[in-house]
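Colleagues,

Please find the record for the two-part complex below.
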Amino acid sequence: MSDNEALEDAPLDPAGMLALVEAQQRTVDRTMLAPVPWLYGIWGTAWLVGFLLLWSAWDGGNPWFRVPGVAAGIAFAALIALSIVASAVLGSRINRGVRGGSDFPGLVYGVSWSVCSVAFFGVGAGLAVNGADPALLSVYFPSAYGLMAGTLYLAGAALFSSRSQLVIGIIVLGVSAGAPFAGQPGNNLVMAVAGGGTFLVAAVVAAIRLRSTR
Amino acid sequence: MTDGLDPVIHAAARLRITATLATIPVGDRISFPRLQELLEMTAGNLSTHLRKLEDAEYVGVTKTHHGRTPITYLELSTAGRRAFEDYTDTLRSLLGGTS
């Protein structure tokens, strides 16, 4: 054993040993949770930019410039798809190297996002088939998507005992349920600023908390 | 003098290992490389201390393969988790008694 290892092995006084436990567990938390501000930041940016583009695609929307509807729709879908890929990559880093009882709940939670997205999209497509007006659909889709995200954040809060996910889930549900009352296309602006803003604030709060554990 | 503190984990390196394993939920295991990364210890040093914890039956070891690569997973046993909790409780009562 080297001198360094012998030193590492030596016990400290009780306060020192307790401090060692706490410092090590903080290091674990900080390392495991390091991707969280990035996750919130990516979603916040996708919502802010995506919904602002949708808002800019309609008469009575963005007063400064217009974006063609098809381009806004494609850009929104691309931003969400990119965020899903980024979340999958970053999310898998959080629990990297850990296997066992949490595998199944984690897998179900991860798959829920894509399954629920398809289901909510299906209802929207069904409304379109039944003659729903495009303006009405542009009220449905943002809120349906937001309700799905908010509900899954509540599921995440329960699954991972995460208070921050609980707060985000409740705010996103409130924003999504309230956005239609802003009228179309203002509902998209509400989703962009209040919804995207919530994620961006959460990103900053998560980053500050991580830093404060150093 | 160890004041009734468990000598298996009353050593800085093994206490850090035990504290890290205690953060992994019951029923989950952590791979050796990830544990090494969280502890910033050399593989040899970590192995040495893990063997002592394994000998005391505080740590369970599962050897498996990911493709052709062998991977070792580690977890705190029920006895290990209890020993860690008893150890930190004892520390706190020692500190409470002296303050």
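The interface with chain B takes residues 1, 5, 8-12, 14-15, 17-18, 20-21, 24-25, 27-29, 31, 96-102 of chain A (CB under 8 Å).

Comments are welcome before we finalize the supplementary table.
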